[in-house]
Write a structure and sequence with these properties.
118 residues, mainly alpha
Length: 118
């Protein structure tokens, strides 16, 4: 397996890891979104809100959920993790790798740095 293939697979593993962690964050935040909806309903029932306050709170709620969705989309699709971190995560999950991935990345950095080769 060539160095380019290893780096490409590390990038794909990073993307899969970030998508999974963003989805986990979304699932853990659903309870708070539902709690906010219930709080809005209770506020409306208790204070008998008019049309404008009800609309303002609803728009605020929708904007918050959209903002949360955009933040999670950024984490899932635009953020890039350091390859060394991804290599360490993969090595922790698969004992058969040992420290091969980290060693490959460290050798690549050493090969790129002209001061260390002298």
């Amino acid at each position: 397996m060539s160095r380019a293939e290893i780096l490409q697979r590390l990038d794909r593993a990073d993307r899969a890891w970030l998508i999974n962690s963003a989805f986990e964050k979304f699932l853990s935040l659903i309870k708070y979104i539902l709690l906010a909806v219930v709080v809005l309903l209770v506020l409306d029932l208790v204070f008998q809100l008019g049309a404008i306050p009800r609309l303002a709170l609803s728009v605020l709620m929708v904007l918050s959920v959209v903002g949360l969705g955009l933040w999670l989309a950024y984490l899932a699709f635009l953020k890039i993790s350091p390859r060394l971190r991804v290599a360490r995560l993969l090595e922790e999950r698969d004992e058969s790798l040992g420290s091969k991935l980290v060693n490959i990345l460290q050798m690549e950095e050493t090969a790129k740095d002209p001061e260390e080769t002298e």
